[in-house]
Amino acid sequence: MNIEDINTKSPIGSYRGAWVGYSLDEEIRKRAASGGVVTATLCYLIETGRVQGALVCSSQFEDGVFDFKLSIAQSRKELFEAQSSKYFDIPVLKGLDLVKSFDGKVAVVGLPSQINSLTRRMAKNEELRKKVGFRIALFCGHNSKKELIEHIWKKKGIDGRDIEQFRYRQGHWRGQMELTMKDGTLSRFPFQDFSHYQNLHILSLDRCLNCHDHMGYYSDLSTGDVWLHKMKVDPVKHSIFLARTSLAEEIIQKMKSSGLLEAKPVDRQFVYRSQKRSINYHYNLSARAMVGKWLGVKVKDRTKEKPKVRDLVAAFIVLLNHKISKSPRLLFWFMKIPKPILSVYLYLFKGLVNYERKNF
Ligand SMILES: Cc1cc2nc3c(=O)[nH]c(=O)nc-3n(C[C@H](O)[C@H](O)[C@H](O)COP(=O)(O)OP(=O)(O)OC[C@H]3O[C@@H](n4cnc5c(N)ncnc54)[C@H](O)[C@@H]3O)c2cc1C
Description:
three-stranded antiparallel sheet, binds flavin-adenine dinucleotide, 360 residues, eight-stranded mixed sheet, Aspartate Aminotransferase, domain 2, alpha/beta
């Protein structure tokens, strides 16, 4: 494997096939963040003996503290428990110790930056190369600190110690946050009550400012949501997925012909459009590097874009919000902004990055 041959010079990168679709197993879709393609693929890989386990992550409460758990899932039940997206920093590669001591091959699911690091380690380590049978990257705009969700609970008057189980996203389109309380009651809130802050990069991770890998250049299979208006009215939540290696292409074709996956081929423009706004912001390291110089935030320009004024304003909003997050006093006041005003701020940001790129 020659890492340097992997194309990172365009937002989407190289791939062999792209599809839009979903798992045909309703049980999988019930708990999925998107169309359940990740879990359907992991089930297929394990059930056909291509791997014996999958390194996945779940969230949990331990002594009232919200945290993550890494594990090697070997059954449907264990894969289902790890479903849905967790929008906080989970050091997936710490699970490589579990992978090394596991008896068999493993598929790994992670964010693009994690799959990038994993692939670099695999290139240098034959033992790891033999152990990791498949790499799945989730599309990722950026990730957040755990404090963000804790602020949201606090805003809603919820004490983390009273929560038994939490899911960031459940259900159609953006979905809902779902909390199961220790007294057995179930609460649901619009995911937007969290995602407005997340999309504005409040309490986002520092390292995400320097990343331009939105779609997992280094994975076998990468997948995310289809953010197109026509999907909002479709009763089934879809995923978009890219096979970047021949292995992934073969697996998708086999899953499709076995009736496990709905998979309609789509062209490169469809892939871009499904993530247009995020890509326009995320790939433009140049805009963040320029604005970063004025605001004293170090960002290395590795994409050499020619930012438009609107890109610079969008980068300014992100870096400003990132700075606000670092000051407890400013953050306190930011969290008090009424939702309608916050929505206007977010739509301004979205409007700035809502344009058609020429190359993708
Ligand atoms: C922080 C974050 C940012 C994202 N940003 C975007 C985006 O900008 N655009 C977009 O289209 N999609 C984004 N996604 C991906 C999207 O939310 C879904 O995770 C993806 O479409 C897979 O859905 P699924 O139904 O196939 O997976 P499911 O069947 O629900 O399975 C999800 C799998 O993802 C793994 N997982 C969940 N959270 C994490 C995590 N934090 N780190 C590592 N592994 C994890 C679980 O172990 C599980 O195996 C993001 C996800 C995360 C976690």
